[in-house]
Amino acid sequence: MRMRVFLVLSLMIVEAFAYRYRYYRYSKWKPRDVPECMSPGLVAQFEDNPKLKEYIIERHKGLSNSARINFKKYNKYPAIENFLKSLGNEPSIGPSGQEIFAPDEVIGTTVENRKIYLVKIFKKDMHKRTRYSKRMRKPAILIDGTLKAREWISPAVVLYFINQLKNNPQQDPAIEKLVDMYDWYFIPVANPDGYVYTYTTDPCWRKNRRQTSSDPVCFGVDLNRNFGYDDKTWDPSVGGSTDPCNYNGYAGTGPFTEEETKAVMKVMNRKGVNFVAYFSFQSYSQIWAYPWGYKKEALPDAKDLRKAAQVGADAIFAKSKRIYRVNQSARIPEFGLIAGASDDYARGGANIKYSYTIALRDTGEKKFFLPASEITPNGEEMLEGVKAFANYIYKPRRKYYYYNKW
C-alpha cells in the first residue's frame, strides 16, 4: 500500500514539474529564441508596428519538432518529406469503396541537396490510358506552395489539401468526387532550402539559397520572378531586380536559372497530362489573381477566368465570411506589375487556361506570420473554394473526353 502511494505521489510530482517546465518555456519565450528577421523592409516597420515581432515569435511557437506530420501545426521539412514518402505505401479507401492512390516523385534537387517532391492523387479506374491526344485525357489540376520561403501558411494549406483528397478524414463523398473528376498534382514545398532557412536563420527570407555573387553575403533568387518564356514575361525591370544581393527581388540572369523553377516548369509541361488549372498558393492579402501580371492588357478569355475564380471566392465567403478579391494580377495595387511569375508562365508558356495565384490569409495585420491556429480554417475555406471552382469548370463532352481551349 505504501509503495502504491509512493508511486502515485512520484507520478504527480513528475507531471507537475513537466507542466511547470512547459509553462515556463512558453510564458518566458524571448525574441532571441526565434531567428532574427533580416528583411530591410520588415525591420523598418517594427518601430511603427512592434506587434510584427510578436507575430513572428507566435508563428514560431506553432512549429512542430516532431518527425511526424501535424496538420494543425507548421512542420519542419524532414517531417514533410516523411509524410509525402509515406503516401504511396498503400491506397486509401474513399466513401465509395474505391481505392485512391498518392505516389510521390522527386522532381528536382536543390543546391543544398534537398529533394523537391511531387504528389499525384488519382484513381486507377478513372485513369485509363489512351493513344489519343491531350484533349482525350482526364483533366488535371496542379497546385504548388512555398515558392516564397517565408509564407508558411502556403505549404501548410497544400498539405491540408493532400490529406483531404488522399485520406478524406471525414469520408466526404464531395471530396472523393474531386478525385473522380480530376487527377491532382501537388508540389507542397517548391523551395525547400529557403523554407528551412526561415525556421533556422531568418524568418523573413523569401528566395532560394543559391549563392548569386562572389560576394559571400549574396544568396538567393526570387523564384516568383524566375519564370518566363520571352523577354517580356521574364524582365527584372518589371517588379524584380538585377542586383544579385537584393534581399527580395533578384530575378536571376534569365528565366529558369534555378533548379526549383525548372522542376515546376517541367511538371507544367509534362507530356500526357491534361492540366486545365494551376494554382500557386502564396500569402498574404486574400486575393484570387489571374494573368497577366507583367502587363495590364487583358486576356481574350479574362471573363472566363474571372467568373470561375469568383465562383471559388463566393464559396469561401459562404464558408468563413472571408472576402477574397478577384482581379487580374497587374490591376491589383498590392501586386503592381510583376514579370517572371509562375501563373503567367502557366498560362502563356504551358497553355494552362485557368492559371491563378491565390494569396491566402490574412489581409495584412500579421502579414506572413500567421499563428498555427489559422492553418485549419484557411485550409477549410480554400478547399471549399477550389471545390466549387473545380465543379464549375468541369466540362466532359463524353466519357474520357475533355478539352482545354480558349
TrEMBL record:
Peptidase M14 domain: residues covered: 73-393
Gene Ontology cellular-component annotations: extracellular space
Cofactor: Zn(2+)
Keywords of the record: Carboxypeptidase, Hydrolase, Metal-binding, Metalloprotease, Protease, Signal, Zinc
SUPFAM superfamilies in the record: Zn-dependent exopeptidases
Family annotation (Pfam families): Peptidase_M14
Gene Ontology MF terms: metallocarboxypeptidase activity; zinc ion binding
Leader peptide range in chain numbering: 1-18
UniProt-listed GO biological process terms: proteolysis
Family as reported in the entry's similarity comment: Belongs to the peptidase M14 family.
Protein name: Peptidase M14 domain-containing protein
Organism name: Mytilus edulis
